[in-house]
Amino acid sequence: MFLAATSLLFKIRVLTSNYKRFIVTSGEIPIRSYQVVVAATRDMGIGKDGKLPWRLPSDLKFFKEITSGTTDPVKQNAVLMGRKTWESIPIRYRPLPGRLNVVLTRSFEIKNEANVVTCGSISSALELLAKAPYCFSIDKVFVIGGGQILRETLNGPRCDAIHVTRIETSVECDTFIPSIDFSMFQPWYSSPLLVENGIQYSFVTYVHVRSSEDGTIARKTDGKCNDVKSNSNGFDVENFSFLPKMIFEKRDKYMPHSRSIK
């Protein structure tokens, strides 16, 4: 009976002391979880003609800070992107400095580039990052685009958080991603409405809320950021130590009556 029970596949979530998260399935290879960083309109438009249809230096600064900051100064983060996203980065800025650049491609080779690795799929990249040496050197994993990669990862079971620069101004786009599934993700932090170069926008972070059995218990909030300490199941939505430190700092700044992890 015991042997039969232990042979069943089961999933557990592991949070290590340095906040590195994996999803481990019995009998399978450990796989890293990840966070998504994206700028999108209300209808989830993210680009036009292969470019960002807005100019927001503050968003670029936010992107650099959130993907570069680590809890351990001797480690770095990994950024996962598709080939087109890699090629859209100006040559003088790639690879993105201070981060392991993971480019997803099955045919494209990047030769003689330090701090760059290529993988054939999202799953193979997450498996690679769960193995040595990357499991020791990589702090957090961020998915940054493009459209196809985001469509595959945005509401995925291994997605821990979604950091959205929400574009409130109407902007024409030709590339779209799915809406955030609010039955799985709960708003955790939202900035006030900001304006730059005639574009209204805000920064919003959603967290994937799970019970101790790894089941989803997020309330349906229609994307509104409610300042709550816990939901009806008693789950403390603020105990998300895997989030970047800057997100805690911004929550304290814009929502000072909330309680952060110390």
Automatic annotation (TrEMBL):
One of its GO terms (molecular function) is NADP binding. It comes from Salix purpurea (Purple osier willow). The lineage of its organism: Eukaryota, Viridiplantae, Streptophyta, Embryophyta, Tracheophyta. Belongs to the dihydrofolate reductase family. Its EC number is 1.5.1.3. Pfam families: DHFR_1. GO terms for biological process: dihydrofolate metabolic process; folic acid metabolic process; one-carbon metabolic process; tetrahydrofolate biosynthetic process. It is an enzyme of class 1 (oxidoreductase). This is dihydrofolate reductase. It comes from the Eukaryota. Keywords: NADP, One-carbon metabolism, Oxidoreductase. Residues 33-208 form the DHFR domain. Pathway: Cofactor biosynthesis; tetrahydrofolate biosynthesis; 5,6,7,8-tetrahydrofolate from 7,8-dihydrofolate: step 1/1. One of its GO terms (cellular component) is mitochondrion.
